Amino acid sequence: MKHFDYIIAGGGCSGRSLAVRMLPYLKASNKQLLLVDKLPKKGNDKTWCFWEEHADVFEPVVYKKWNRLLFSSHFIQQELNIYPYTYKMIRAADFYTYTDEKLSGNPHIITIQGNVERLYTENQQAYAIIDGEVYSSDYTFSSIPRIQNKRPERYQYLLQHFMGWVIETETAIFDTECATLMDFKTPQQTGTSFVYVLPLSPKLALVEYTVFSEQELATEDYTTALKQYIEEQLHCKKYTIKEQEYGVIPMSDHPAQRQQGRIIYLGTAGGFTKGSTGYTFRFIQKHTSAIAEGLTKSGNPIISSVFPNRFKTYDAILLHLLGSRRLSGEEIFSELFEKNKAKQILKFLDNETSLMEEIQIFSTLNKKEFTLALLNRTLKTIA
Q1: SS in 3 state form for 221-257?
Q2: Cα separation of 104 and 97, whole Å?
Q3: Are 288 and 16 in contact (CB under 8 A)?
Q4: The sheet that has 192-201: what strands, in order across it?
Q5: What EC designation does it have (predicted)?
Q6: Segment 53-75 mean pLDDT
Q7: Residue 326: pLDDT band by 50, 70, 90 thresholds?
Q8: For the residues 203-227, what does the mean pLDDT come to?
Q9: Which of 135, 190, 268, 342 could connect to 273 by a Cys-Cys bridge, CB 3.0–4.6 Å?
């Protein structure tokens, strides 16, 4: 049996983020980490977008930044002042290349390709069975998705599913300094839907159609919506699709198990996808940074929480409203952006506001529907 001080099971965004952040600690303590993933990570299989006030460790791979954002719906259209935040985009291919360079050849990191068949804790040790071989560690960090026994009578379960095209146009139609955060001028019959547009050059942009609903759509439904948006909202009929991406993100208020003995869960597996919006990248960074800090200070990677639990309740209320359709997502977000400063909204969506700031935000929303959603959700969870 091979023993490592730490094992990271899953070499995606959260696993690689933690490995990079642990490098100084591993060197200082002369410890070894095993990073295992089923498949090599090479292509540009996804794009991460987020906002932040200060540059973090992955600033070198930020592909594009915007200081101006646009919000649009059938109710309002406004440019958002997001200072002191900057909206950023990281391409997966660049992230994988950068982290490969950081991790490969490091004497404290062993990287292997293999199938993690089982993780378990026994006698104050964590164990991983990888392709039939048993490995032990002091702690194992896992981002591998787990099967969840759903309880729809208590919790909400929606999906955020999306298809995006990087398109190149014949003429310069994009403002490279301003990205569209949300444009709700899309079909709303299947659920809350919007498009975001990230200009990469005057003739190049990522145009992504996103839907919040219980079920994914047929491929032709995404393509139809994208074609319609590009022609009717961007007023563009001649373009070339350079890249395509597709993804599904779970949105739920079902509590996630963040630790099981000596196994600590990361990313979506640990509940670090924001239930109401699907944003994940910044929450992964907050969590992995806290783990690395805990190891450096005390050798203990177990942390209590990275944000107050009340934000889970806020997410649950919004999910209930979206699921019940008593208020449309377009109505909710339009009211939110019309009556609040953008920087306060972004701070709130990052789970960083104070209770007083949250009360101020809630006072601008539909009090009756939000109160009913809170009451219904509370009754469900105590039944």
Answers
A1: HHHHHHHHHHHHCCCCCCEEEEEEEEEEEEEECCCCC
A2: 10
A3: no
A4: 77-81, 68-72, 178-183, 192-201, 204-213, 157-169, 239-252
A5: 5.5.1.19
A6: 96
A7: confident
A8: 95
A9: 268
- Mean pLDDT within 185-197: 91
* pLDDT exceeds cutoff 80 at 167: yes
Tens-place pLDDT, residues 233-281: 999 999 999 999 999 998 888 888 899 999 999 999 998 988 788 889 9
| In the chain, where the domains are located | 2-44+92-148+254-298, 157-252, 310-382
Which two tokens mark 368? 């009756």
d(CA 167, CA 170): 10
Half-sphere exposure (Cβ direction) of 58: Cα atoms closer than 13 Å: 35
Which two tokens mark 312?
């889970």
Pick among 3.40.50.10860, 3.30.9.10, 3.90.1210.10, 3.40.470.10: CATH of 157-252: 3.30.9.10
Contacts of 185 (CB under 8 A, 6+ apart): 72, 73, 74, 195, 229, 232, 233
Residues composing the chain:
383
DSSP 271-316: T-S-TTT---HHHHHHHHHHHHHHHHHHS----S-SS-THHHHHHH
Residues 6+ apart with CB under 8 A from 237: 231
Contact, 281 vs 13, CB < 8 A? yes
Tokens (6 digits) for 102 = 């950081």
117 residue type, one letter: E
Distances (CA, A) of 294 to 35, 240, 291: 20, 48, 5
On whether the CB atoms of residues 108 and 93 are closer than 8 A, the answer is no
Please report the pLDDT score of residue 383 as a whole number: 64
Percentage with pLDDT > 90 across the chain = 78
In the predicted model, what is the mean pLDDT of the chain?
A: 93
What mean pLDDT is predicted for residues 363-372?
90
**Topology classification of domain 2-44+92-148+254-298:** FAD/NAD(P)-binding domain (3.50.50)
